[in-house]
Amino acid sequence: MSRLSSLPRLGREPVGLSLEKIREVSLRETAVRFAFGALVSAVAALVALRFGPHVGGLFLAFPAILPASLTLIEKKEGNEKARADAEGGIVGAIGLAAFALVAILLLPRIGSAALLLALVAWTAVTLGLYFGARGAGLLR
User: Fold this and answer.
1) Which residue among 4, 60, 86, 104 has its CA within the 20 to 30 Å range from the CA of 94?
2) Residues 111 and 134 both lie in one domain
């Protein structure tokens, strides 16, 4: 038995990919997510036009469909599921910030190789936070 499979489940579903779940998402839910993502991207573009690409880029880092997804999940599956997804979004956003920081610091120095290092930083930070918070009982 692997170390990961021996972790207590605490009533949670295991992390995984289920293609059957795709069929459960309605066309309306998909449209809401698409529209919200498009709206966030359009706002980022307008901000970039007004204040420059550095400021506009900050808005592109916003997880565009997360608020729409959380609303739909809460209505369909309840508050606990939405909360679990929000917690995952927070962990992922912190990992994305680590990716951006490494990319900003290293792209001018080592070029595209910095993207590989930024990916490593994102992975390490995200997995470290996830398993650390889960081990400490901070994530459901």
Assistant:
1) 4
2) yes
